Structures are given as structure tokens and as C-alpha cells.
Amino acid sequence: MINVSTIASITDFLTPAVRAMPPSGIRKFFEYSAGRNDIVSLGVGEPDFVTPLHVRKACITALENGKTSYTPNAGLPELREEIAGYLESSFNTSYDPTNEIMVTIGSSEALDLALRALITEQDEILIPAPCYISYAPIAFLGGGHTIMVEASADQQFKLTAEALKAKLSPRSKVLILCYPNNPTGGIMTYEDWLPLPAWLRSIIWL
């Protein structure tokens, strides 16, 4: 029970984690630059053109045909099958659309769901940095501890086994990987990845 007489503002109802979280820097800059012609905004990752007309028409048609009800939590089966087909034809990777593919509203929601399912308060989440600004807040809200792994400019912002070794501990549970990297544009080649999986498999704590 909350004693309303001790409430100074609505923020007193918020959890300590939410109160301690700073505002989004990207969103602040986005709002500042909106409608201005003298600023080139690189803050929000969206194209400088509108959604193609045939896609907008398909959305309108779907609404007119009554496609307005809830979908399965994992997404429409037909969409998951199309995604599986795309991944196989484009990247030669095989995923079962019934239990290995989930449709989310962007990568932030997917990451939030994954971390909520995986981490506890004692777990560490390793994140190559610089990184997308929402990774750390999502991990923080999930109760985990973020550990930034430096991906330096002289290494073309690539994750190296040496940098990862320096940050790894028995509490490490999740490694977030985003390549091509946001915001640096760094790319990991096949040769860059080779030292990592073999070494990681050899140091799993039980």
C-alpha cells in the first residue's frame, strides 16, 4: 500500500531502474532536428523516402478486408514461412518457421524479449562498443549487468577475441552481436569470425 501523502510527483510510482535511466539521446536529437533543413539527422535509422506505394496499398486492402484481429504471438505462419524461405535462398541457412522464427516490431522488441527470457540479476551481457543506444537500457531493465567490450577504430570496429577475453567472466551469459555495426558501420568478415566460436566453445563454465 502506498501512502499518497508522501508522494511528491508521479515519478515516485516508478521503479528505481526506470528513474535511474537517462532519456534517449537519439530521440532527443530527433525531436530537436525535426522540421529543420539545416541539419542532416543520422539519429533515427529510417530511410529518406516514404514506404513504396504498392506496400501502402496492400496495407489498406488488408484493413478493408477486415484483417484487424490479433495474430499468433510468433507472427502469421505464412509470414514465418516466407522469412524461412528468404533466409535459406539468400544465406543458405535453415530455420523451422514453426518454432525457430518469431516476428517482432523491430529488433529492439526482439532483443527485449530474448533478454527477459535469458538473464537474471546476476548475469552479465557483453556488448561490443560503440553500439546501438538501446542495447544497454534493455539489458538494464531486464535486471542484467552490461559489460562493454571495446571495438576500437584502429581495428575497424571489429570484435576481437583478445578484447572479448579481457571482459569475459563466470557471470557472462549473453553476447550481443550486431554486424554490420550500428552506428559505426563496422563489418566482420568470415575470417574475422573464425577465431571466436572455437575459442568460446572451449571456455564454457558449467
Notes on the structure:
By secondary structure, this protein is mostly helical. Helices cover 38% and strands 8% of the residues. The protein contains 9 helices and 3 strands; from the N terminus they run αααααβαβαβαα. Strand 1, helix 6 (135-141) and strand 2 (145-150) form a beta-alpha-beta unit. 10% of the residues are buried. The model has no long low-confidence stretch (mean pLDDT 86).
Could you tell me the number of beta strands? Answer: 3
Global structural class? mainly alpha
* Share of helical residues: 25-40%
Order of helix and strand elements from N to C terminus: HHHHHEHEHEHH
User: Distance between termini?
Assistant: 42 Å
**Main β-sheet, spatial strand arrangement:** 2-1-3
* Coarse shape: globular
Low-confidence stretches: none
Average of per-residue pLDDT values:
86
Number of helices: 9
Instruction: Report the portion of residues in β strands.
Output: 5-15%
State Rg.
Answer: 21 Å
Keywords:
206 residues; mainly alpha; 3-stranded parallel sheet; 9 helices; 3 strands; globular
Question: Summed up, what is this model?
Answer:
By secondary structure, the protein is mainly alpha-helical. The protein has nine helices and three strands; from the N terminus they run H-H-H-H-H-E-H-E-H-E-H-H.
